[in-house]
Every structure is written in structure tokens, then in C-alpha cells.
Amino acid sequence: xxKVAVIGGGHTQFMAESPNxxxxxxxxxxxxxxxxxxxxxxxxxxxCCGNVLGEFSDGQGMIHSYLANDIGCKNVPxxxxxxxxxxxxxxxxxxxxxxxxxxxxxxxxxxxxKATAMGTPLATRTFAMFSDSRxxxxxxxxxxxxFAMLAHLYASHYNIPLEKLKEQMAQVSVQSHYYGAKxxxxxxxxxxxxxxxxxxPMITTPLQLLDCCPFTDGAAAVVLASEEVAQKxxxxxxxxxxxxxxxxxxxxxxxxxxxxxxxxxxxxKQAYAMAGIGPEDVDICELHDCFSIASIIAAESLGxxxxxxxxxxxxKGQFKIDGETPINISGGLKSKGHPIxxxxxxxxxxxAKQLRGGLAEQxxxxxxxxxxxxxxxxxxxxxxxxxxxxx
Amino acid sequence: xxKVAVIGGGHTQFMAESPNxxxxxxxxxxxxxxxxxxxxxxxxxxxCCGNVLGEFSDGQGMIHSYLANDIGCKNVPxxxxxxxxxxxxxxxxxxxxxxxxxxxxxxxxxxxxKATAMGTPLATRTFAMFSDSRxxxxxxxxxxxxFAMLAHLYASHYNIPLEKLKEQMAQVSVQSHYYGAKxxxxxxxxxxxxxxxxxxPMITTPLQLLDCCPFTDGAAAVVLASEEVAQKxxxxxxxxxxxxxxxxxxxxxxxxxxxxxxxxxxxxKQAYAMAGIGPEDVDICELHDCFSIASIIAAESLGxxxxxxxxxxxxKGQFKIDGETPINISGGLKSKGHPIxxxxxxxxxxxAKQLRGGLAEQxxxxxxxxxxxxxxxxxxxxxxxxxxxxx
Lengths: 391, 391
Fold this sequence. Notes:
The structure is a homodimer of 391-residue chains.
Chain A: E1 4-11, H1 22-36, E2 46-50, H2 54-57, H3 63-70, E3 78-81, H4 87-100, E4 106-114, H5 120-127, H6 143-157, H7 162-180, H8 194-198, E5 202-204, E6 207-208, E7 217-226, H9 227-233, E8 238-247, H10 262-275, E9 284-286, H11 292-301, H12 310-316, H13 332-335, H14 343-355, E10 371-378, E11 382-390
Helix pairs in contact in A: 1-3, 4-14, 7-11, 7-12
């Protein structure tokens, strides 16, 4: 199998109520990525597109076909993927396979979503369709409810008083906003405090408003290419060194493993093994912090903390930019925002940028970062992980 | 690249108003395919799932994750694809790449749809989202309207009186029903006459009711495997010898090529070249006959007839089971039915069965068929073609 490089990236402003259509957002990020890869649309051989709610937000299915045409990538094969919040990393992983196999040399991956287009009540209802429609959705299992239950389970499993866990969770959000304030693409560019989190509106006990990531409109794109192409167009190639993917099914089927998501441990093990690394080698991680408790759970499954201890490590600053493993230095889903079908590509964009050393001017460059990990969770059990490396 | 075999297939009854959920239909076809491949669910290494309207029909996104769990393919990577009516062949083509590359040995591909679950008015509205939401949908561009316009354009381009073209189109539907009557999986198992087509209700001039395929509920699945696995589990392997895919964008962008779809000629050329064959080598073809005029247009782009002549060839019986190129001996979308995200896998199932010689008892076996072609059209411009061969 050939090496696969990330040779360019594009990113729109993440925001609520974007005045642009999904297709316009996707085109903006895609053209940006192609230009930054020092290529033109005619060089693109295929498009892998992540989009979850296009039918609801824009009344538009098969956006990939129109994207290809609109940006001048005429008649290329174009795919659309759906894996809830893991949609875009699924697209990246599949695109990487087309390049690694030697069939294609240059593939554009674009993720896009207008999650705020429906207004919050309908967004919550449409998004609830990405849990099990037989057993979960009818029981009121919206995602805030899922993660609230996991928070209770986590507290009882590891014998942490709920008030203590809430402080730890608040610290996760505070850190995300600290870095998000430095990210010009972020939806929320302002700092918050632990006090503000704890005094905020209660969403579903124990999760308060600022424990929850927002709905977001936005798009991100990356161009993947063979090593040969990468060496021609950039002197700072970043490679996809490993990937993993697994699906766990609905939460009840994972009862032995909860509050941890079974698929994550399977997926990240594959990704680490393929890249020949362990968690101790990761210099920068973007993980799926849809809720503050989700960060704590994910960091443990990814191997950055013993079970029951990640919250404490957040409080000690071990996941800050100068800590042991810098996590979500982009602001994460919490502060940067969470356009569902775009999030995974945004994470890859961010990690690639860190590994290329391009974030010093934003005051959030991880010094000397060489190895990055991407982690996305779709619904209640799809995990995709990617390991990126610079050489 | 390794050879990729189709080693087993499963198919539910195609029908309107299925009492089963999409997940149940997908599980039924998948378990059938796995059993017929002489495998168990534990042998499946990944699932590639085609599904377009699951959010509307079942209130269920990411069906692939629950399918994996429900049928006992625990924790495997599972993908969902969307490319309108070409969704399922897109899934097959992508799955084939994972096997061809050497990364995976055994992949399940399942396509499923409950297109009648919403009732006809809503089905038409949801399905209209798979044309361009800026320029086409607001202009009343439902798919019957699209193909009616293409029929007018075809008649004027090739100087065929509309009444003559209508008779040719009627013959396409008559042939499809003739074979569909012999297919126990078909939605409509009864013959019709040219007179019945021409005296039927007018849908959109010149298309009458029996020029149009139905909405359908159903699922189909195939297991793809490496040559090594295929040789262990079957003495009748069928191989995916070639594939092609292209996206044309909305119809107005194809004005130079209409009534023919630009992407089809690009895609089928790739598929023929990869398989080292031409249209004259095809012994059996399943093509995308969403409307009778669509068959005529497709047969010409695929190389089975000169432009402007395919209707005449249908009338002469050249696409019958004993004709030059047997087309849609399954009954096609018209008579077998068209469960949108399942159609492509159903076509692959059918062609593989023909190449394995398994249709004699249904009275519709193409004698000595060795090479088959699959053709699917998604929306107004996504084409996927697959060439299957037995050795």
C-alpha cells in the first residue's frame, strides 16, 4: 500500500445561521483546499463528501454530485458518506484507501453541514434519528440525555462525587473555550470560567449548557495525495500513518463496556498498530467532545489517562498546549463548533496544520508536534480514528 | 490489485408497503447472502450499506451501525453511502476496492429502502431532493418531469414521431413485465400489453403510468471476497472485472449531451476498459430503467444501439432473452421494482445469478452467459457501472 499525504486544507468560518447554502460552504472549503495544495480543480480525480442532514437543511440530497460540477471537477466519481458525527472521518478514511491502493493519486475530501438551518427543536429531532429508532429514540434518547446518563454512570463506576465530576467537566469546557478564543474559524471565540459553566442553565442533569457543544454550520476540506504528488507540491507533507474504524450498535448492546464506547478501543488499537505508535507518542489530539463528559471518556479509551482519572488530569492541565498530551487545541467541538458531517475533516485539517507548524501566529502551536490523533464518534457507537505524522 | 469475487447474494421480496422496517429488510437480505456464501456473520470484516431515505421512511439514520450489530457482525467498520438511485452500486464499487487493495478479504454490501413508507406524495417530494435544489426542484423538476422532457428531446433530436416513440417505449415496459412475471422477487408479476400502456393514465406527457417504475420497499445484499476466499467457498465464482463511476451535475450543465447523460459514457468506458471488453461482449445487462425512455437512452450510451435506434431494437426483440444483448431479464426497475438505495445491489445479485446459471427454473436463464453489465443512474447525473465475469 502506498503512503497517503494530506497536501492541503480549507475551512470556512464555523457559525450559527450561515447565510450560505451547504453547497456554497462546501465549495468554499474545497476551493480553498485545492488552492492551498497548489493544484487546480482539474487535478482532482474523485470527491469524497461527508454530509448528514442536507435533505433537512437544504432540501438537497447527493450534494457531492453538484459540488463536483460547481467547482469544476467535471465528471469525476463523487461519493457521499453518512456515519452521523463520524461521517467526515469515514470519508477521509475511505478516500485514503483509494489513494493507498494506487488507483487514484489525488482525492478531495469535503465535509459540510448546516446543522442550525432547521432551528433548534427540529435539529434536535432530526439528530435523534442517529440513535436507534426502535429502542432509543422513542424513549427520549436525545444525545444530551445519552451523555447525561453516561456521566451518572461514570460518576458511580469510578466513585467520583457528582459535584466533583461536574467541576472536572466544567474545566474541560473552560480549556476548550480558552483555545477556541484563539481560533479565528471557531464559532465561540470567547473564554468562559468554571463558575459560568456551573451557574449556567441545566440541560439534562448533570449536563449544563456549557457542557454541551453547539449546533453549527460550516465546511472543511482536505486534499489527499500519493507520496509522489505530495513531494512535488509541498515541502511539508503530513501523512495518514494509521486508521481504524468500528461500529458498536446501540448503547444497550454495549452494557458491559459503558460508560466507555466499545468501538473506540477497537478502532484506536487498529490505528495505533497501523502507525506503529502508542498513546504516549501522540503530540496533539483532536477528540470528539460533543459533551464535556464525552471528552473525559474518550481520553481514557484513547490511552491518555487511566479510567476514572481523565477529569482530574484536565484539572491539572495535562491536556493543555504544554501538557503531556495537548487535546482540542482548536477549541474542539465545544468552542470551535460541531457541523456534524464536517467535523471529522475539520479535525484532520487542524491536526495537519499543527504538524506543519502553521498555528504559531494564532498563539496555539504545539511545539515540535510530529504525531497527531483524530477521534470521532458517530451516534452511539461509530468510531473512526486517524493517525497523522510528519516526517 | 487483487481479483474481487461475488460469492453470495440475498434478496427480499420487492413490494409496496412492506410490514418490515428497513433494518429488518436489510438484515433478511444480509443473512441470506452470508448463508449462501457458506459463511457466518463472524467472517464479515466490513459492511458497506446503501440507504437513501431511511430518515424519512423509518426515522433512522446510520442504519449500517445497527445492521452490523443486529446480524452479529459485531464491531466491524460499517459505511453508509448515498448517491440517489446509484447508491447501492456506489457501495459495491467501494467495497470492491477494499478487497482489491488487499486490506480486507470479505465485505458484505447491503442496499435497502422503504420508498413507499411515506406514501406517494411525500415520496415524490423527498425524492425530488435528489435533483438540484437551486435550479431544478423549485421549477417542478420531479423525475417524471425530467424524463418526460428527455423523451421530447429524444423524439425531436432523432426525428421520431412522438406517437412512434410512445409505442417503442411501451414495448420496453411490456418486455420488462414479461420477464418480471417470471421473477418471484418482483413487485409486479404480471404481463402487460402495448395497448394497456398506451391507454393508461397520463403522468406527464408523453409518459403514461406504465412507462414509469414504481416506488418499492426491499433489500438486496451480496458478499464480496478475495479470489482466495472465493475458491474455498464456491465452485462458481463470479468476478467484478471492471467498474466505472462519474458525476455530471444538474441537467442544464449537460445541455450539449442531452438527452444522453454525460456521466454514463465516461463511466462505462472506464468499466469496459478495466474489464478488457466492449459492448459486443456483454451477454446480460441490467440497466437503469426508471422510465421506459431511460432504458432507450441508456442502451445507446452503453453501446448496444446506435443513437436514435434503441426503441426500434426493443420492438425487434434484440434485447429479449434470446436477442443480441438481453436487457433487464429480471423485470428491471419497471417490473421487479425500484427500492432506491437497494437497486444497484439487486442488479448485481441478478447478474451474478445469471452468470452462475441459476435462473433456469424460473424460465429466464440467458444460456451460457459469461459477461454481465450493471448500469445505475443516480439523480440527474451519477452513473456507476460494473462488469461481472464468470471464468
